[in-house]
Design goal:
Structural class: alpha/beta
Number of helices: 8
Largest sheet: 6 strands, mixed
Order of helices and strands: EEEEEHEEHEHHHEEHEHEHEE
Radius of gyration: 19 Å
CATH superfamily of the largest domain: Cytidine Deaminase, domain 2
């Protein structure tokens, strides 16, 4: 299979051979999602290399930086520059001196990171410290089951790259009426949520406790961790949660929903929030 031409940054056209049961075949053109090494470079020092879809890269840079405790807000970031090289893409993120000093103290080697959340963590104590640093939500917000199901029924309509390629994940931020505010896609489920976090920083005067997240993947502990960073109190996953994700969501006061499909879902934590 060989690339024909680049359609846009997130996808390319390839030729493939379609083989049928009767052994007849035909050549077809397919759109395939791009998977590109993307380096997060802070003040000239490479911190992490992620395999990601090269779309919404400024959102990715900001969201990753928030999720990884590198920055506290956009005020810590002076500029994000996107540089394409022969080997991939560099996101050159210029951060404040104080923030950079903190980063150097806590720096982890994350080459090859896939978003699992533990790659490069220097010790199990550091992992525990990261969990303990998350703030529990005290939100009394409630959500209508009908509105959750309504948003789920429309979720696929917002996944344009998935419709074209069949190989990407998506995360969406919805209001409590089930209306979509933001959607981001990526070959990596964690990356898609990082992009949502980054994009959400541009939303002003919003109470994020009244919003909820949908992810097209399973709910691992790090997806719960990222939801806490965004200060939302409801995470809806199309697939199953992990046991650690359920324990963490329960501790942080986050309502965790899994197996959300076909107008039904399972509620694992803080069930009283769903009406």
């Amino acid at each position: 299979m060989r690339p024909v031409r680049l359609i846009q940054s997130g996808q390319s056209v390839f030729k493939s051979l379609a083989l049928k049961k009767d052994k007849s075949s035909s050549e077809v053109l397919e759109l395939l999602a791009e998977e590109t090494p993307i380096a997060m470079v802070y003040n000239g020092i490479s911190h992490a290399v992620m395999m990601a879809t090269p779309d919404d890269l400024e959102d990715f840079a900001l969201g990753f930086s928030i999720a990884e405790n590198i920055i506290d807000s956009t005020e810590d970031v002076y500029a994000v520059e996107i540089h394409t090289t022969d080997n991939g893409i560099e996101l050159k993120i210029n951060i404040s001196a104080e923030t950079f000093s903190r980063l150097k103290e806590n720096r982890r080697s994350l080459i090859g990171r896939t978003g699992c959340g533990l790659c490069g963590t220097e010790s199990l104590n550091q992992f525990k410290k990261t969990q303990n640093s998350l703030n529990s939500t005290q939100s009394r917000a409630t959500f209508s089951s009908d509105n959750i199901i309504k948003s789920l029924s429309k979720f696929s309509n917002h996944q344009l790259l998935q419709q074209q390629t069949g190989s990407t994940h998506a995360s969406a931020l919805c209001d409590n009426q089930g209306q979509f505010l933001l959607t981001r896609e990526d070959v990596g489920r964690h990356n898609a949520l990082d992009k949502i976090i980054g994009a959400s920083l541009k939303i002003k005067n919003r109470d994020f406790n009244t919003l909820f997240l949908i992810t097209s993947s399973r709910a691992s502990y790090e997806m719960v961790q990222k939801a806490a960073k965004l200060n939302v109190c409801l995470l809806v996953a199309i697939s199953a949660p992990t046991a650690l994700a359920v324990r963490l969501a329960n501790k942080l006061g986050i309502t965790l929903i899994g197996f959300a499909r076909n107008e039904k879902y399972n509620i694992y934590t803080h069930k009283d929030r769903i009406k």
